[in-house]
Amino acid sequence: MKKHNAPFGIRFIGFSAREINIFDATFSVEQNREKQYYRLPEDSLQEPDLYLVNADDLKALAILADMEPNNLRPALLVGAPHVELPFATVERPIRWLKLFGALDTLIERRLIMLAKQNSADDALINNVPDRRRRERLDLDLTDPLEYERMRSKSPQADRILVIDEQSTFRDDLAITMAHHVVPVEWVGTPEAAAEVYTQLSISVVLINPKLTQFDPYDLCSTIKQQHDSTRIAVIFLIDKDFAYDHVRARQVECDGFLSRHLDQQQILLALGKFLSLRR
């Protein structure tokens, strides 16, 4: 099995800000462990390596059920759920050695499963939830605005637009998407982008928010307004030093952000949520 040196990303569900701060601090000081972990920001579209869920929060359990975790995307519950669920659990108060031991076990199982896969396509297929596999919590806690977005029409054909200084990222992505017959366009300025997204059917727009002389949030708003009757995802393609403004992003309906330094398999999994190859 190929050795995994990068830290593992965890999607937190249902924890308070105070608890999240404690987890962040604990993860940051455990730098000498063989397996290291970090919390994925709320607006990151990167697929997590696993879910960490507050078992005392009914809404968090409903969200988890909708995500349908499995051995490739495992879940660890913290606390005592009020219903019987087929997931690993650690009790409160948290004993950190037990929690890290449970995380390590789930990740090791995930790595074994991933080692059996041959390509990003296998990961993409196995990452699609199969809602027939287990009992689901029959709770509808969906934001009404999400239903409104779901009623928007999908583009007639998938196409990705990259707005970036250089075409390097687009060139790599185009190779990945060629197998799925998804064209990837590139432009270097917002003005040039307008000529593309007003004339062609676009599914996803990837914006480098550090391009000079424009506001990426205003550009996102413009694109969304231009396509108010069709579904189009606008995603920021960020470096580590970019400060993503969660409040402004929500106001302009930005779909989230991705690190431009992720490998192509992770990029494919993230973008696949907005393309017909995942629908």
List keywords for this structure.
279 residues, alpha/beta, Rossmann fold, 10 helices, 10 strands
Description of the structure:
The chain is of the alpha/beta class and 279 residues long. The chain has 2 domains: 8-140, Rossmann fold, CATH 3.40.50; 145-278, Rossmann fold. 36% of the residues lie in helices and 15% in strands. The strands form 2 sheets. It has a 5-stranded parallel sheet with strand order 2-1-3-4-5. A 5-stranded parallel sheet has the order 7-6-8-9-10, with helices on both faces. Helix 4 runs parallel beside helix 10 (264-271) and helix 6 (168-178) crosses helix 10. The protein is elongated and about 55 Å long. 26% of the residues are buried.
Brief overview, please?
By secondary structure, the protein is α/β, with parallel strands linked by helices. The chain has helices at residues 17-29, 58-67, 96-115, 120-126, 144-150, 168-178, 190-197, 216-226, 246-251, 264-271, and strands at residues 8-13, 37-39, 50-54, 75-78, 88-90, 160-163, 184-187, 204-207, 233-238, 256-259. The chain starts with 7 loop residues before the first strand and ends in an 8-residue tail after the last helix.
